[in-house]
C-alpha cells in the first residue's frame, strides 16, 4: 500500500487499528527518551484549510498520549514512545483503543489486534518532520528477501513478527534514500505555547 501522505496513512491506521503492524514494539525500555519539544499541537504545514491535527500530551512515565484529529472530526488515540537508536529518533505508536462497528460479530474483533506502527522523527523543531514506512518498498523487499525479517502475510496484509532487536537491526540497515522510509512530512505548531512536561517524565 503506497503512502500518499503521512496524515492519510495515519488516518487509515486509525480506522483499521494498524497498517503493516508489528506484533512486537520497535523499542526497549533502555531506548526510550522523553523530549518536551514534541509536546503540544501540530498541524500539516502545507494545508491551511482544515489540516489534520496531532496533539502530544505528556505522561509521568516517558510516554506520550497522541490524539490525531482529522478534518472531518474523526479522532484516533495512540500511546506513543519516542526512542533513540544510535543517532536516530523514532516514534512507536500503538492504538490506545480500537473501535469496531457496533453490528460487527465479536469473532471479527477477536481476530484483530492493535499493532505497533513506526515513524522516523528526523527533526523535532522548529518543524516536526516525520516519515512513515514506504509500504511499497517494504512489501517488494520482503517478497524478494522473505527471510530478512520475520513476518506473516494474510492475503495482501503483512504483519511483522520479528523480535524487537531484529526489528531495530533491520530499520538501521535500511535508512538510506528510497529505502524503508518515505520522505518526511512537515508539521508546524498550531499554537506558540509549548506545554510543560510532567515533572516525573523529565530526562
- Computed over alpha carbons, the radius of gyration is 17 Å
- The 3D shape can be described as globular
How would you spell out the order of helices and strands? HEEEEEEHEEHEEHE
Intertermini distance: 37 Å
Describe this structure in words.
This protein is an alpha+beta fold and 203 residues long. It has one domain (6-201). The protein has helices at residues 6-16, 106-110, 135-144, 164-173; strands at residues 32-33, 40-44, 53-58, 64-69, 75-85, 88-95, 117-123, 128-132, 151-154, 157-160, 185-189. Strands 2-3-4-5-6-7-8-11 form an eight-stranded antiparallel beta barrel. It has a two-stranded antiparallel ribbon with strand order 9-10. A hairpin with a 2-residue loop joins strand 9 (151-154) and strand 10.
Which secondary structure elements does this structure contain, and how are they paired or packed?
Layout: H1 6-16, E1 32-33, E2 40-44, E3 53-58, E4 64-69, E5 75-85, E6 88-95, H2 106-110, E7 117-123, E8 128-132, H3 135-144, E9 151-154, E10 157-160, H4 164-173, E11 185-189
Antiparallel strand pairs: 1-5, 2-3, 2-11, 3-4, 4-5, 5-6, 6-7, 7-8, 8-11, 9-10
Amino acid at each position: 500500500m503506497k503512502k500518499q501522505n503521512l496524515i492519510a496513512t495515519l488516518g487509515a491506521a486509525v480506522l483499521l487499528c494498524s497498517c503493516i503492524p508489528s506484533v512486537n514494539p520497535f523499542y526497549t525500555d533502555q531506548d526510550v527518551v522523553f523530549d518536551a519539544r514534541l509536546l503540544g499541537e501540530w498541524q500539516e504545514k502545507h494545508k491551511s484549510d482544515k489540516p489534520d491535527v496531532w496533539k502530544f500530551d505528556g505522561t509521568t512515565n516517558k510516554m506520550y498520549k497522541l490524539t490525531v484529529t482529522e478534518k472531518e472530526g474523526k479522532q484516533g488515540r495512540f500511546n506513543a514512545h519516542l526512542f533513540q537508536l544510535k543517532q536516530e529518533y523514532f516514534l512507536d505508536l500503538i492504538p490506545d483503543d480500537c473501535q469496531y462497528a457496533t453490528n460487527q460479530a465479536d469473532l471479527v474483533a477477536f481476530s484483530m489486534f492493535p499493532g505497533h506502527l513506526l515513524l522516523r522523527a528526523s527533526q523535532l523543531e522548529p518543524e516536526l518532520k516525520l516519515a512513515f514506512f514506504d509500504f511499497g518498498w517494504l512489501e517488494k523487499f520482503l517478497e524478494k528477501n522473505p527471510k530478512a525479517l520475520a513476518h506473516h502475510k494474510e492475503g495482501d496484509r503483512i504483519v511483522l513478527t520479528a523480535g524487537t532487536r531484529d526489528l531495530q537491526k533491520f530499520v538501521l540497515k535500511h535508512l538510506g534514500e528510497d529505502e524503508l522510509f518515505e520522505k518526511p512530512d512537515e508539521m508546524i505548531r498550531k499554537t506558540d505555547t509549548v506545554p510543560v512536561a510532567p515533572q516525573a517524565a523529565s530526562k
